Amino acid sequence: MFPFTFRELNVLKEEKFSLVELVHHFFTETKEAGICSFEDFQVVFIFDGLDECRLPLDFHKTTILTDPRKSTSVDVLLINLIRGKLFPSAHLWITTRPAAANQIPPDCVGMVTEVRGFTDPQKEEYFRKRFRDEEQASRIISHIKTSRSLHIMCHIPVFCWITATVLEDVLETREGGQLPKTLTEMYIHFLVVQAKVKKVKYDGGAETDPHWSPESMKMMESLGKLAFDQLQKGNLIFYESDLTECGIDIRAASVYSGVFTQIFKEERGLYQDKYDGGAETDPHWSPESRKMMESLGKLAFDQLQKGNLIFYESDLTECGIDIRAASVYSGVFTQIFKEERGLYQDKVFCFIHLSVQEFLAALHVHLTFINSGLNLLEEQQTTGFWWPFQFMLWFKPFPEKINLYQSAVNKALQSPNGHLDLFLRFLLGLSLQTNQTLLRGLLTQTGSSSQTNQETVQYIKEKLSENLSAEKSINLFHCLNELNDRSLVEEIQQSLRSGSLSTDKLSPALWSALVFILLSSEEDLDVFDLQKYSASEEALLRLLPVVKASNKALLSSCNLSEEGCKDLLSVVSSQSCSLRELDLSTNSLNDSAVKLLSAAVESPQVKLNILRLNVCELLAENCEAVSSMLSSQSSTLTELDLSIRNVQDSGVKLLSAGLQRLNCELNTLRSDQLTFCFLK
């Protein structure tokens, strides 16, 4: 077994290795043992952190390589290994965040496993263990349940930690005050907590002293730029060069203590976290802290645009962060010293979670806009007239300000993998006066126009009327929530409560609102019954995201066409589909639809256990497709209900043959005609 991390492989981007040389390079004991061929061994390669990969993995334009002794670039080596060209008998296990999984072509994937986050009971268990005071724990749990966006995010363990850190501080320092309800409010409070920790712990200040010094603010600006640049690039980790580009001096790491986490990577992949946690009271922003936050925001934005999740020293330097002072960023930033196996001493950096990078990136875009009038989301900037009217512009709904938010909406919708979704929610949340008030001291100018916010809300509603994917529509509703607009959701909820919902009159935006409500419901999506809304194919297609999230879908009598069947099966075949029971009874599926359905059930991605059908006429060739489905090794069907008329003898024989094959796992088959045949 040979475990690799993409963080280690990234630094070999410009070098060339053969597969044998690469193994020898990382596992010197194989070279010392004289092992130069691995064909006689059962070999497993583990590649950890595909989402942190900075290698150009182009599966469509890569030279085929079959010789494990021939040297080439690391990316070509990996592609041929994944495609099975280089070492066909080897087994590969690649770990990644879901957003990066589509980098690997589906035909190269044999099996997908998912490490899930906290379940609802586990969320509650976490907070009860975190807060020993039962009354305090109950209040926090109750508050989180009232905010669906917070409750949903709490399936991520690190978000539970962030939430606990914030709510503990708010309850201790502002007793009786309002608790944060939106993601933006939560992350603003989190930022404030880290600034207070830095001021008290590292600067020797008092709890009531201003925490945002000019130096800290400058550093935060640099980090914000790094976050944004690397977010756009899709980078989660950063190297020294990334920091250098953002103007971050990596030699001044101690300056960032209290706002960054410094983690030393030791042998066997163990980490020593130097962050002490904890929270002080009363948020203030000293000039030093403001500088630091500006640096952090720049870092977040730069790397977000690049799609980078890890950063190197150059990334920090570009954002003005002195890596000698990286420990100052404890709680927000992670510094990793590559000491494992003594291969590299390169410093690798990343935020404690992608959502922190996305928040700081949004903060950087916001700060840049109000300070200089520069819209970082537009390629061409026009700022010549800005400074004389900067103050007026911030308090009036000039087109430039409206364009900032509209361009952010457009850019997020254009993202193929949704990597700017949270960034958009944070940016819109920062436009509210109430949230800007929480950042007094960091924001030298505050102000908000209700007209600007209303125009942004209206623009989002117009987008919801377009033909958007379910994921993009749902995120836009989260954006409306950050803007405190729940009009569409409340309209649907009122209709549902009164029993007067008429799907015939629903606009596309209201259809999206219905999907959002159903997916955000506190009730588990165990059974979805289409009849409750409308027994039509249009309603089914609109509500496919709900089908995808349900365990059981009752879709009888919806006049499902062949095209509708294709759309349904596309959802059922997706890796994240939860469906286990599908009822398509009293739908007159044609021959092509039956073949499509049979082929889908044979797919390893489909996990259906129960399938109910009503086929008016099952031709012999379709019986063959169903027979193949029954005996497929990857089929998980245990119960099949076939209400069939006019089955020819040849068709019955084919179905019977499928049932008798060893691979058939079916326990129950319902059909009067076939039962009679078996009894014979």
Automatic annotation (TrEMBL):
In this protein, which residues make up the domain named NOD1/2 winged helix? 218-268, 291-351
Task: List locations, semicolon-separated.
Answer: Cytoplasm
Q: Sorted alphabetically, which Gene3D superfamilies does this protein's record hold? A: P-loop containing nucleotide triphosphate hydrolases, Ribonuclease Inhibitor
Q: Give the Gene Ontology MF terms in alphabetical order.
A: ATP binding
Gene Ontology CC entries for this record: cytoplasm
Q: Which InterPro entries match?
A: LRR_dom_sf, NACHT_NTPase, NLR, NLRP_HD2, NOD1/2_WH, P-loop_NTPase
Name the species this protein comes from: Oreochromis niloticus (Nile tilapia)
What the entry lists under PANTHER family is as follows: NACHT, LRR AND CARD DOMAINS-CONTAINING
What protein name does the entry list?
NACHT domain-containing protein
> What are the UniProt keywords, alphabetically?
ATP-binding, Cytoplasm, Leucine-rich repeat, Nucleotide-binding, Repeat
Q: Which residues form the NACHT LRR and PYD domain?
A: 353-491
Indicate the segments forming the NACHT domain, all copies: 2-134
Q: Name one Pfam family in it.
A: NACHT
